[in-house]
Amino acid sequence: MKSFSTKILQIGVNPYVLVPAPVLKALFEQAGKDKGPIPIKGTLNEKPFIQHLVKYSGKWRLYLNTPMRKAAGIDVGDMATVFIEFDPTPRTIEMHPKLKQALAKNKKANAAFIKLPPYYQKEIIRYINNLKTKASIDSNIIKAIEHLLGKQRFIGRD
């Protein structure tokens, strides 16, 4: 596990820290790659987290979401102590059975879903999985299928 201390910065509305070159080098070696999101785990001011390192505008960034910052008791402008390492644990989430069933019944929607980038597939799956009531699950699955068929907006997307 590699450590560093740094100031929390912000780009747009997104708080982040830049990862020093020696730490990046070690992570790239552990991950066996230096492109695309790199799954990591570690601590932020001694509070555990699971996240991805991503490259944006030519710089590798560790974005600090609200739960991470709240747990660590820090925010933009504060100094943070970060311990990180590559996390080889698969980051899969199960699709809601009703969504799986709806996609199986509609081949065109399923084909559109398969063509989506993985992050957007996960966004749809997470959205449906986090709904609480049977009624909202059912109505949002209908909306998701309609969206995949190009007929309706879904979770803020055209």
Major beta sheet, strand line-up = 1-7-4-5-6-3-2
Low-confidence stretches: none
- What is the CA-atom radius of gyration, in angstroms? 19 Å
Which architecture of the largest domain per CATH?
A: Beta Barrel
Number-wise, the strands total: 7
Please tally the helical runs, counting DSSP H or I stretches of 4 or more residues. 6
* Whole-number total of structural domains: 2
Structural commentary:
This protein has helices spanning 21-31, 66-72, 97-105, 107-115, 118-129, 134-148, and strands at residues 2-7, 9-11, 14-18, 38-44, 47-56, 59-63, 79-86. The chain has 158 residues and is of the alpha+beta class. The chain folds into two domains: 2-86, AF2212/PG0164-like (Elongation Factor Tu (Ef-tu), domain 3); 97-148, no CATH class. It has a seven-stranded antiparallel beta sheet. The longest helix is centred in the C-terminal third of the chain and has 15 residues, at 134-148. 22% of the residues are buried. The model has no long low-confidence stretch (mean pLDDT 94).
